[in-house]
Amino acid sequence: MRIVHVSDCYLPRLGGIELHVRDLVHQQRLEGHDTHVVTSTPASAGVVDERWVHRVDATAGPLGGLVRADAGLRRLLEDLSPDVVHVHVSVLSPFATTAARRASSAGLPTLVTVHSMWSRLGPLPGAAHGLLRLGSWPVVWSAVSEPAAAPLRAMLGSDVPVHVLANAVEPGSWRPLVPAPPPSVATIVSVMRMTRTKRTLPLARILLDVRCRVPGVVPLRAIVVGDGPQRRALERFLRRHRMDDWVELPGRLEREAIRQVLADASVFVAPAELESFGIAALEARTAGLPVVASSHSGVVEFIGHDVDGLLGATDDALAAQLARLVTDAPLRARIAHHNATVPPRHDWVEACRRTQELYAEAAYAVRPRLARLTSAVA
User: Fold this and answer.
1) In whole angstroms, what is the distance from residue 201 CA to residue 204 CA?
2) Could you report the per-residue pLDDT of 260-289, keeping only the tens digit for each?
3) Same-fold call for 2-168+348-377 versus 171-341
4) For the domain 171-341, what is the CATH code?
5) Which ranges in the chain belong to alpha helices (H)?
6) Quick check: 300 and 282 in contact, CB under 8 A?
7) What's this model's pTM, rounded to 2 decimal places?
8) CA-to-CA distance for 99 and 118, rounded, in angstroms?
């Protein structure tokens, strides 16, 4: 198949959508598909894109940029002539939304995957739905988890199916080749973009609470991997509360370095409530770490309470669950053994199979429209 992925966000930007699309393209190309990426993210200086990455200029202001991007998108779709268009959207994705509308109206099979939680976002998704009549488009809708699909179903209505198309990992890339000995100091790790949405400062308060709950004679260490606009605020918080001697901020790390951090840790924490899936948490679970996460987030797609980790509905609950895992070695060992020996079901074999199923459904969805167009021409 010739597959075209469209996203506002792609490398060199780093985030969940960017890395997922890159990995999905890689897997599909390994399967023999002619897979391309069309994005409005500019390239970085001095970096040459692979031939299947196409960048569309959308820099001439909000309206002018969209008009220019739409023209570039139209030419690319005509030139590439894809068998299916896979559109990846977040909270605000004007370029990808335009692509979904243009591709589906042209009779191209179109799958839209929502990578964000469209809940607690005020009137924005509803306004877009009312203005653009999203539910009437001949596209197949999907979201990366059941919690992410629920608000989308509520918005589009009961007549529009919303499928779950989860993210994935390559288990062999995260499972330790040799079981590592337990760390001498209980170590909590988190991997995140340091933004308000990911709840960077609430994580710092949770860690402070854990330190207060765990007896002072028990040494404790925390590592928060990542970077972003909240980093300086986090550094100030750590200094103010005298936490910078046990909470480390190594910055953004490559996957191999993250794998080593996970191998040397005791437990992983994912504090975000608007996490639509939580690929970093899945990587940690695949590496064998117990995961503590918000029960409101998409992490529940692969973390069962008291099986793969512990869930909490509030920050107080998350701190309590972390303190419990830090101090209860048998509980921590039981969950770690399960995670190290039972592979997650969200691997790339399953993800590619499910993606192909939805591509077939997208092809079926455009048939009535094509039949009407053919009849009109005749």
Assistant:
1) 5
2) 999 999 999 999 999 999 999 999 999 999
3) yes
4) 3.40.50.2000
5) 16-30, 62-80, 94-105, 124-132, 146-156, 171-174, 200-213, 231-240, 255-263, 279-286, 315-327, 329-341, 348-365, 367-377
6) no
7) 0.89
8) 19
